Amino acid sequence: MASRAGAYVYPAVDHAHAFPTLTSAQVARVRDAGRTRRVDAGEILFEPGDVNVPFFVLLSGGMEIVQPDVHGERLIATHKAGAFTGEMTMISNRGALVRARVTEAGEFVELQSPQFLALVARDAELNEIFMRAFILRRILLLASGHGNIILMGSRHSAPTLRLREFLSRNGHPHTYVDLDIDKDAQSLLDQFSVKVEEIPVVICNGVTVLRNPSIRELAQCLGLNSTLDPTQVRDVVIVGAGPAGLAAAVYAASEGLDVLVIETESPGGQAGSSSRIENYLGFPTGVSGLELTNRATTQAQKFGAKMRIASSVTRVNCDQRPYEVTLDDGQLLHTRSIVIASGAQYNKPSIENLAKFEGQGVYYGATFIESQICGGEEVVVVCGGNSACQAAVFLSQTASKVHMLVRSDQLSDTMSRYLIQRIEENPAIDLRYCTEITALTGDTHLECVTWRDKRTGASETHAVRHIFVMAGASPRTDWLKGCLALDDKGFIVTGRDLDPVAKQAGWPLTRPPQMLETSLPGVFAVGDVRSNSVKRVASAVGEGAIAVSLVHRTLAEL
Ligand SMILES: Cc1cc2nc3c(=O)[nH]c(=O)nc-3n(C[C@H](O)[C@H](O)[C@H](O)COP(=O)(O)OP(=O)(O)OC[C@H]3O[C@@H](n4cnc5c(N)ncnc54)[C@H](O)[C@@H]3O)c2cc1C
Fold this sequence. Notes:
- By secondary structure, the protein is an alpha/beta fold.
- It is 27% helix and 26% strand.
- The longest helix has 21 residues, at 124-144.
- Flavin-adenine dinucleotide binds at residues 239-245, 262-265, 269-271, 273-274, 277, 279, 312-313, 341-344, 365, 386-387, 390, 476, 479, 527-529, 535-538, 540.
């Protein structure tokens, strides 16, 4: 049976697959790769939040995996001879989620992280067993809603929504306590004098209490980022972990390049906010953007790509090589080449009070979290492109009615035919052309929406508490201005398109720019951020992969 955490339905997990026992031949191969050590009953091998946690295989004795929570400890698994520790954090090198305690003295094989990664790189059979077990163990934690973090918040608070999305997009298991429902939790916070503006409260690793933390503070507390060595000169820094950046990371790391990916929020980009991608090759029944990009993230990390999340690149110093990249916390990094995959961000139409209700009734993406927040209620979806249509279809499964408001007299010319048909045939979607929002009202949360038919001038006001705005996207290139050639809309010009502008942009080499290369040699642009790109997941992935072969050529020139 599938299990539920909040609203998302996770696939059923076979316990035997999540916690398999290795054969003696498999144990022998692990033993050759590490060191054997004696352990004593009661010994703690690692705690939640610990980083660089070793991998253990039990030769004899026993251990238990538990998770500390507000009531003490929750047992997750017991291990005997032939069993092994670890879950996804072994691959991502992030802080551990659980506590490991020896229950019976014996001998364990211990592998440090580099030894473990080297073993799975050369042993395909063990690679498959460990990878499958780690993924299934993470699904078990996600499905039970138990992680090393408790998030106490309100569905009416924009910061709560932001943190929940961050955790969910990072596939990080957590317990969510809804203060609107759990009155005991609310009185607990009252006793500790937690003010309204300090909501949400996060308890991290059962120890640290954070009041209304930023995403960066939360990432730091969870050990999501390892320390970066500022003296290291990398082969390639990838800016952005949407489909284009993730594809570049997978190919670069699998081809032996030293890769660092920097991502402002969580991996996934725009695709991560797509409820169902139906036109991506190989997924005839569609795939959620989150699932696709989470898999890609794991794949990149498995090949050794390093990833820094909740961190932005704010500047590239284009006057020197190796290039110098500045992060928003002031850190400087050096790299021989750069792949810019910073994509695009939602446009915000000029509607009065739009900003006031962001996260409190106004949303720019429709993931399962938003779909649950507005379950059973009427919602409005604004604009008529592909992503708006996807959102309307998706929301119609949980909302009582979807008002789809399109400013023009037809759905976008570039829209997929299958989506148009689904909108037109869906009885839960009320499609209105030539219609625009004229007023948003409410106290702290959106309560009423007024819209006007431009043809007749007739206005209607509805008690709608949730609107989804999907008004196209603009390139995320502000941080690059003055450094490389951009087109009149701010997208990055590359390859042959540079010909007319290359001279003005000061192209310094005798060879012409390569395909996807910007006006700076060794700096490439891929995906939605590139001028004249096709705004699709598949093309972003393709460009990310191609860019890596061009990076190899650039590195050979140095
Ligand atoms: C709701 C929705 C549904 C969609 N559905 C489909 C679909 O069904 N099929 C399809 O083919 N396409 C779909 N698309 C389009 C598709 O998602 C995009 O074309 C694709 O995501 C582009 O990938 P990208 O990697 O180039 O950029 P993005 O996905 O935009 O990713 C860019 C990443 O870079 C990060 N970033 C930006 N600036 C910086 C910085 N300075 N430092 C560090 N990181 C930075 C961002 O946080 C972001 O994660 C959809 C888009 C949306 C919004």
